[in-house]
Amino acid sequence: MADQLTCLLVDDDPDDQEIFAMAVEAVNAAVTCHYADDGIKALEMLSSTQFVPDLIFVDLNMPRMNGKQCLAEIKKIERLVNVPVYIYSTSSHNHIKGQQDVVPTAYITKPSTLPELTKILKGVLPV
Fold it and tell me: Which conformational region is residue 64 in: left (phi greater than 0), alpha (psi within -120 to 50 degrees), or beta?
């Protein structure tokens, strides 16, 4: 039996967290989601050598540390170098430009419905 898969969603909106959890459950119930309300909390979670999620999703617009800053800090953690990191934002424009070492795996625009998000995550999560 394969190991349990985990993902980390870094997003300050509880409604977005709930919708994300429902979509993940619909795609693959074996994926466990962990949540951080901002980039600082995410980095605190990721600083534990025992927590290495299989996928990370980061919102751009958050308090204390925005998604671009969070992505840059995640990319500095060597043991996470092979973990896919997706920007997950309401903005339809890819605001992540610049240094090659802070480029996300992909940019996902938050859809307006659960079925749309489920469809997107089917292309990202292992089924």
Answer: left
Q: Tens of pLDDT along 77-105?
A: 989 989 999 988 887 655 555 545 567 77
Cβ distance 120 to 86 under 8 Å?
no
Tokens 């540390």 label which residue? Answer: 65
3-state secondary structure the chain: CCCCEEEEEECCCHHHHHHHHHHHHHHCCCEEEEEECCHHHHHHHHCCCCCCCCEEEECCCCCCCCHHHHHHHHHCCHHHCCCCEEEEECCCCCCCCCCHHHCCCEEEECCCCHHHHHHHHHCCCCC
pTM for the complete prediction? 0.88
Other CB atoms within a 10 A radius of the CB of residue 117 amount to 22
Cross-strand bridge partners of residue 72: none
CB 10 within 8 A of CB 104: no
Cβ(95)–Cβ(60) below 8 Å:
yes
CA dist., res. 106 & res. 63, Å (int): 22
